[in-house]
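Reviewers asked in the last cycle whether our approach scales beyond single polypeptides. To address this, we selected a multi-component target totalling 621 residues and predicted its structure end to end. The input consisted of the following lines:
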Amino acid sequence: MLNPRSRAIRFIELLLLTSAVVLFIVGAILGDTFFLRLATEALIFGGLAMSVDLLLGIVGLLSLGQALYFGFGAYLSAVVLKEISPSFLLAIGIVALASLVLGWVASFIALRSKGVYFALITFGLAQVAAKVVYNTRSLGASDGMMGVPILQIWTPFGSLDAGQPGTFFVITFLTIGGLYALLKYFLTTPMGSLWHAIRSNEDRLPYIGYKSKGPKQVAFVLAAVVASVSGALYPMLRGFVSPELMFFSVSGNAVVTVVLGGVGTLIGPILGSVLLTSFKSIIGTWTVHHHIVIGIIFVVIVVSAPKGLAGLLVRRFSKIRSPEGGE
Amino acid sequence: MLESLQYIYAPQIINGLSIGVAVILMALGLTIIFGLLDVINMSHGEFYAAGAFFSVTLVAMGVSFWVCLLLVPLLLVPIGFAMERLLIQKVFHYKDRHILTLLLTFGIAMVLEDSYKIIWGANPIKPSAPISGASEILGVMFPNYRLFLMGFGALLILSVWVLIYKTQLGAIVRAAAYDKDMSSSLGIPVMRVYALTFAFGVALAGLAGVLLAPIYSVFPTMGRDFILMAFSVVIVGGLGSIKGAVIAGILLTQLQSISSLYISPVWSDPLVFAVMVLVLMFKPTGLYGSMKNA
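The resulting structure, written as structure tokens, was:
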């Protein structure tokens, strides 16, 4: 029998998978565009939130500037698609490699600090990068870059047209799912155990013969890659990128998503992103002031249920006992 | 040589100083709140905006600007007090309260910012300066209001320092920051001191908002542009250090305004940030220690 935590995670995974399949089938039958594209966007921002959760929920580092890597991935992907070739694999490959380097360089700056200092440094890094992009003429300055071509995706069974909302939804689902599987795999390795150890008590780590620096650096770089690859999908969906993608509101939103979905579960943030994106879309039809509502919900969650929705599920599962009384 | 000093550097230095005074006022609130409560107040910039908005409304209602200087901070004190009591103290006992309080104040910032949009609209409001005219110093003209701002700001910073280090009230606050259990057993109402200190820091931010409203425009996200600079100042000076906030505030704003003579202003922010990173690399806790140890 699985423990309540794993059961809650399994439950969310199945819930998301089922909803995705249902949405895809219903969308294909009805020829829907709006909901498929909305769901794709939710998954893309879910990927960003997942990278925040890797740092916050697993290693215990609060990043307030994850939008830096998300925006970097989006811009680089837009440049590759426009200037080199509209190829999905090429764009994702280049972004993954480049973000590996960027994350590695940034880790030397950010990981000099701990706790609140780390939060403020990542915040500052992203603010500075956003300001530079906002004022760089060759990257379109405040207008961003438009006219990213529609992708043709090569597969062994022939070429796919990503302009189809259903097709691109599946591709996004597989990409974000792949990133999730990658992170989950990392959690089963000794590296994953070290991350948990750092979160519990970093000062004790040297007592059992490990340094905390290496594992933290791996997590930081991995989070940068996950955020960048998620960001790389954005121009493929929207056809443009703008400096707003690097702004603090994007980083902040990712943190809200993580806390809403459940810190430290990796899948919770995806659920949180789906809920938050749908919520914004619904509430956005009758008011532009959705931040006030989301802000209030967020404050209530932080004060009363700091483990988020996944935490509520865990509590629910630990109350249910099987009739035989065996756990 | 002397001419370039007079006409190029002097105006830049004095303008930098007037921004510096405002940044220091913001940073003082942040650093006092952190020094005592260990809370990074992400909504500090929104309280700065609150001060500016309150003064715009009060002036429109016919209240004099000089009364606003006193009234607006007084209005913010109960708001800050209630916020600390009702929200921040709720998550204070958790192990990762650093992160939880940061998240909490971030959520509050979201709510506040959107409320301003609803109440005052998103368009910038430009109040007129309460002191008009300009004076000549060393052959260069300076707006009178900026000169007043520098003098008044310096006076304020000095009074905060006197309050914290030279009065009994300040001694209570420092004692509570140093050892809250011991202070509590000596009869200090620590929880109330926490809430009052938070309110005091927030009121300082509001006062900075009142003072700067006539120089910059007033709009809902006005705090955001300012908060990064204030955070950099607090980090370089040392979280929780008053002396550090003042010295780092002057250093960083001077660096920003003088460097903008040579490089595009776009790059002056990265420069300030680079200095912050360098300081963190060699002195991870900033230039000066926390006010607990003074």
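DSSP finds twelve helices and two strands in chain A. We regard this as preliminary and will revisit it once experimental data from Aim 1 are available.
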